[in-house]
Amino acid sequence: MSLAAAASPSSSRFLLPSTAARRRSLHHLLAAPAPPRPPQLRRCSPYHWMAQFWAEGSLEKNNALVEYLKQYGVVRTDKVAEVMETIDRALFVPEGFTPYTDSPMPIGYNATISAPHMHATCLELLKDYLQPGMHALDVGSGSGYLTACFAMMVGPEGRAVGIEHIPELVVASTENVERSAAAALMKDGSLSFHVSDGRLGWPDAAPYDAIHVGAAAPEIPRPLLEQLKPGGRMVIPVGTYSQDLQVIDKSADGSTSVRNDASVRYVPLTSRSAQLQDS
Ligand code: SAH
Fold first, then answer.
1. From the DSSP assignment, how many helices (H) and strands (E) are in the chain?
2. The domain at 54-278 falls in which architecture?
3. Which Pfam families does the record associate with it (predicted)?
């Protein structure tokens, strides 16, 4: 496990924010009114109380996280800021973990919900391919967070499909979305999750304007390339130990161009049995 979707320090895009920026952001977060102390924690140490504070969901803290990502330079557009403010990350992070810190968190089954800066990076890369009415595929949907963001962006006339090969995660992601701002979109069918091997894509709603892969593939799976619409974009981590976040653009004539956006570290896109082997 521990194969977290964390950015490599070698990527200039992901340099840590300055100490001043971090202090400002921390100050902002801490300035949020503290929730009443739960009775069972009254006699606990300040550390336990702070852990509880960070673990509690609140839209104010979610907004503060987005503000932090703006200062960090990862959230660069209003469109991405708006969707990340609308979908509260706390609904997608298992209880007991801190949803608003910029790191991946375990969601079980050797999987993680990616770090907020990776979600923001992928949303920024794909935002022009997530216009109302467009089709988006999220391979390795895990917690369902990004699928929910995609659904909000493409709206009721579009399609957002999440593919995940662990059935329990599909159940969990469905429950997460039911409590989120994207619930109505799942009810009306424009957002759906399916248990399947994501390496095969999901032909039913193809071709896709946007394809996101949330796990690292040794090479780009051909079915995903085939299901990408001419004029569409795919964002996929490629590699095993050393991985690059690749951006693949398919032009109108069907030819493709590939560029590396950043060095990253994701869980592998693999078979279910290989993933669960050492769990
Ligand atoms: N974007 C997700 C990332 C989850 S981690 C989030 O932020 O929540 C990557 C996910 O890919 C895991 O849930 C893992 O179970 C899934 N995965 C790995 N290989 C897969 C495959 N072949 N088919 C479908 N899902 C896969």
1. 10, 10
2. 3-Layer(aba) Sandwich (3.40)
3. PCMT
Tokens 């950015």 identify what position?
7
Q: What is the pTM of this model?
A: 0.84
- Tens digits of pLDDT across the chain (279 residues): 333 343 333 333 333 344 444 444 434 433 344 444 444 444 455 555 555 555 666 889 999 999 999 999 999 999 999 999 999 999 999 999 999 999 999 999 999 999 999 999 999 999 999 999 999 999 999 999 999 999 999 999 999 999 999 999 999 999 999 999 999 999 999 999 999 999 999 999 999 999 999 999 999 999 999 999 999 999 999 999 899 999 999 999 999 999 999 999 999 999 999 999 966
Looking up tokens 């949020």 gives 32
112 lines ligand 1 (CB under 6 A): yes
Rounded to the nearest whole angstrom, what is the distance from the C-alpha of residue 264 to the centroid of ligand 1? 15
